[in-house]
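Study this:
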Amino acid sequence: MIKGLTLKSLLSFTLLLTTLPIITLPAYGSDNIKDVEFAVFSLNNEIPALTKSKARMLYKGKTKKLNGSIKIVLVDLPERSIHREEFYNMLLGKSVTQMNGYWASLSFSGKGTPPEELSSDDIRDIIEWLNENPNGIAYAPVSAVPENANILITVLQGE
């Protein structure tokens, strides 16, 4: 045995190591994965609710209209925003880098333009933009969305 290390202390240490993952598991469990859920929302109550498929089509530039007549304008959070990364990962399974490449190819081919990018992810800036764009749609963590907003869809991790 190593000097000062007894069988009892070795067993205690082994027991601690084997139970530690069980003790810390809830901190990394599925509860925390769903801590952030996003709302795709507008201030315009005439914009209809979205299916996940329709939300994906909007954020991939595959459609710009809802109900055949409402021309939609999207806004995006700054590229450096952690919320932007999480949102695109949750909704489309893509990183910001992948989406930038996707939008670059659409823009180059003349098939689409990316959403307007805000300079901050502050909810006040998002609301200000939505007030200036009546058919605008934004996204933000549900906890930040004002009560008077028209939530079109919520997006959760793993859905």
